[in-house]
Write a structure and sequence with these properties.
There is one protein chain. This protein is of the alpha+beta class. It has a single domain, classed as Nuclear Transport Factor 2, Chain: A (Roll). The protein is about 35% helix and about 35% strand. Strand 5 and strand 6 form a beta hairpin. The chain is extended and about 110 Å long.
């Protein structure tokens, strides 16, 4: 009788350990699969931002913004987005700074966005450099949807011949519109301005610097005792 009891107990322990082991392996596999989905989503979005920057640079070559607007969904809708405008902030010597603000709280659809983007690019004479990268991922549903902040940096020359740099932060809502399983076709379905600054100037201050503009009032004079 004791052998049967001990045998049954031992079998139960073995089954419990085996079950726990298999459950642990299953959980580990699920975690690894989830990590792989996160990694793949992040990699694809990084490439998306690289391609987006490339499309903007291409506008400088052919003056066609369709390559940029293609990144936005046909279902794009941004409630209470408002019009993004640059407002002059501070000027020192030949350098001026502007703040990018959301003027009003108008809902924006794809047509409104296209018009605003066209006006922005029309204000530029040339584009020297563009960079777009992830600032922070706020929410993510791997392979389906992502909410993130992006950093946008553009160096160029405006229609007045002034060199400038735009440093903008946006919030993007991305949705994967790829139809087939495992397909990726990420589109911006909504955007929101976080903050933005433009710095512009003639660059003359770098070629000929007036010390007084830098707060330097020292005047060099030869020591008369050296001529005595």
């Amino acid at each position: 009788m004791k052998l049967k009891v001990w045998g049954g107990t031992a079998l139960g322990v073995v089954l419990l350990i085996t079950g726990t082991l298999f459950y642990g392996l299953h959980v580990l596999e699920e975690q690894e699969a989830e990590h792989a989905r996160f990694f793949e989503t992040g990699k694809v979005i990084n490439q998306l931002l690289t391609d987006y920057a490339g499309a903007i640079k291409h506008v400088d070559e052919n003056k066609d913004i369709s390559g940029v607007t293609d990144f936005y969904s046909s279902d794009y809708m941004a409630p209470e987005r408002g019009r993004w405008e640059l407002k002059k902030d501070v000027s020192i010597s030949d350098v001026s700074s502007f703040k990018l603000i959301a003027d009003g709280a108008t809902d924006y659809n794809r047509g409104d966005l296209n018009t605003e983007l066209q006006q922005y690019f029309n204000s530029l004479e040339s584009i020297k450099r563009v960079k777009c990268k992830i600032d922070m991922i706020e929410e993510i549903e791997p392979e389906r949807a992502v909410t993130l902040r992006i950093k946008y940096i553009l160096d160029g020359v405006d229609q007045n011949g002034l060199a400038f740099q735009d440093r903008f932060f946006y919030r993007w809502w991305l949705v994967n519109e790829g139809g087939a399983a495992g397909a990726f076709d990420w589109k911006v379905v909504r955007d929101q301005l976080v903050e933005g600054v433009r710095t512009s100037g003639t660059r003359e201050g770098f070629a000929s610097v007036n010390p007084m503009n830098l707060g330097i009032d020292f005047t060099h004079a030869r020591d008369p005792d050296l001529d005595a």
